[in-house]
Amino acid sequence: MSDALVRIEGLSRTFDVSKPWLNRVIEREPKAFLTAVADVSFEIRRGETFALVGESGSGKSTIAKMIVGLLAPSGGRIVFDGQPMTGTDGAAMRKLRKRFQMIFQDPFASLNPRWRVGEIIAEPIRTFGLASGAEVRREVARLLEVVGLGARDAAKFPHEFSGGQRQRIAIARALSSRPEFIVCDEPTSALDVSVQAQILNLMRDLQDEFGLTYLFISHDLSVVRHMAGRIGVLYLGRLAEVAEAKRLFTDPRHPYSRMLLDAVPDLAMTGRRRKQVEGEIPNPIDPPSGCAFHPRCPLVADRCRREVPRAVPSGDGMTACFAVEEGRG
Amino acid sequence: MSEPLLSVRDLVVEFPTRRGTLRALDRVSFDIAEGEVLGMVGESGAGKSITGSAIIGLIDRPGRIAGGEIRLRGERIDNIPEDRMRSIRGRRIGMVFQDPLTSLNPLYTVAEQLIETIRTHLGLSEREARERAVALLDQVGIPAARRRIDDYPHHFSGGMRQRVVIALALAAEPELVIADEPTTALDVSVQAQIIDVLRDICADRGAAVMLITHDMGVIAETADRVAVLYAGRVAEIGPVRDVIQAAEHPYTAGLMGSIPTLTQTAERLTQIPGAMPRLDAIPQGCAFNPRCPQVMPRCRTERPDLLARGQGRQVACWLHAREGVGDV
């Protein structure tokens, strides 16, 4: 296990979703908290693509934001290449910060519309002092070519590009500080399928070329199947299962993973009837007791309503389910 | 099948702009048979939603239908006055849109909205309408429908709201339901439920469905036939299984290859170079020719029409014109 680049240990995050103080006093309501991420642990190995999947409210993006430092964790820690990131001060953090980058979902929102593409890509290069003067321009031109655009595009503004091209610009910017690790939060969700294929292919090529490690976040299981080596399945802020991609898709263990896989519409499913999916995701402000999945679970037992299941190693990954633990699954 | 339920012929929709007229739909033709589910796929800007809006007479101004015709059971509905269209919209053609919050009025309870719709179109009494509304909610799978009917839309979750919208669309027993991206705003596990509800309830009532979506997986599971749109034109129409497994148009073939699936693990996805042209820059000839791997000189000058290929398949591509059927 020494080849872990990123280690997440017992990560938690709660948000205060209380009403304003005066309302609370008048309506005699206590403070309300939303647990977006609860006790999540996993590791990302050097050079692999680790994916987090889950439906809305499962905590995928919150985890991504904590890893890149956009949100402070409420508990637990993140260890990057042996160095804990929480509590690390300015200078050391800056050094670490250079080694990971993020690609966001919406390339229309993530690029500054008033900046030229050249400046957008050059900013991290200058910030981290990687090059200066004419060298910056050469580096920007090189990066644009790496992502399939042209050196001349540096003089244009983001609005002159289509969604797919903008995502290429966002990728070029992410690559500009020569990172080892890139967090990709739904990088193709805003794109059409034919453009999505181009971006996914590009991301794989870049991984091979630069030996990148990806944390890939998506709600689209087919995309995850295509990209990831290992997958973590999140449900209401907790990891339900971590498994090798191939194993998860052929032999999902956690009842939620099974349900999710059954629900995905797929090209190969023409004319086939799916198993009926039960219920909906509960409100995360008031989650069910015990295992959060128990109200929808076909294998529910008494214990599931009382206790939160622990992550139990199974094969290459882990499963957090009493039914699997007790061999009822 | 003598006469199709809905027949669209050479439909042209144009949007005048300062820099000239944009053609959002360019001679689109297709039929929907009674009780059939026709999938309509394409990437953003291909004209899927405009087709739906044109059928129900709700194209945003200054857009207009500039040519062609739309017939519902043989009767033209594209050039009729607005008051007659209103008696068709909602009554004979129901609608389900992507975002359930925008199709429900937040100021009225679900009961009020359903009862109003039912009474407007079917002329029942308040009490009969209420009974009918409860039965509908029950059928679309709202638990404790009798109690929940008096709730407001915001009391329901996204998936439940979309069920209410489906109930509303079906309230007047329409012959055709146009569902525009009905599950795009929902999570996968809920999406599966909504697709099942939509398909089953329409099958029960013999209502035909025009299912507009960008998600081929949804089409694969739900539709009988599928029409593939590209740059405001129909590229290919056929039974869903044939189109997915043996696409005849190079665009459809590329599109299918570019979709990652759960079952196969290709190292690389098929890649169509470039992107769909903007409406003000649609190339001459076949709109797909600059991206087509099998482009021929003819494709750059002449636009291919939809050619019948047998077994209900039609394709607009010169590659297939040589082989007999519809040869020029």
Automatic annotation (TrEMBL), chain A:
It is found in: Cell inner membrane. The keyword Transport applies. InterPro entries: AAA+_ATPase, ABC_transp_ATP-bind, ABC_transporter-like_ATP-bd, ABC_transporter-like_CS, Oligopep_ABC_C, P-loop_NTPase. Transmembrane segments: none annotated. Belongs to the ABC transporter superfamily. Its main location: membrane. This is ABC transporter ATP-binding protein. The keyword Repeat does not apply. GO terms for molecular function: ATP binding; ATP hydrolysis activity. Keywords: ATP-binding, Nucleotide-binding, Transport. It is a peripheral membrane protein. CDD domains: ABC_NikE_OppD_transporters. It holds the Pfam family oligo_HPY. GO terms for biological process: peptide transport; transmembrane transport. SUPFAM superfamilies: P-loop containing nucleoside triphosphate hydrolases. GO terms for cellular component: plasma membrane. PROSITE patterns: ABC_TRANSPORTER_1 (PS00211), ABC_TRANSPORTER_2 (PS50893). Residues 6-261 form the ABC transporter domain. The lineage of its organism: Bacteria, Pseudomonadati, Pseudomonadota, Alphaproteobacteria, Rhodobacterales.
TrEMBL record, chain B:
Pfam families: ABC_tran (PF00005), oligo_HPY (PF08352). It is found in: Cell inner membrane. Belongs to the ABC transporter superfamily. One of its GO terms (biological process) is transmembrane transport. Residues 6-256 form the ABC transporter domain. It is a peripheral membrane protein. It comes from the Bacteria. This is Methionine ABC transporter ATP-binding protein. It comes from Rhodobaculum claviforme. InterPro entries: AAA+_ATPase (IPR003593), ABC_Ni/Peptide_Import (IPR050388), ABC_transporter-like_ATP-bd (IPR003439), ABC_transporter-like_CS (IPR017871), Oligopep_ABC_C (IPR013563), P-loop_NTPase (IPR027417). Keywords: ATP-binding, Cell membrane, Membrane, Nucleotide-binding, Transport. GO terms for cellular component: plasma membrane.
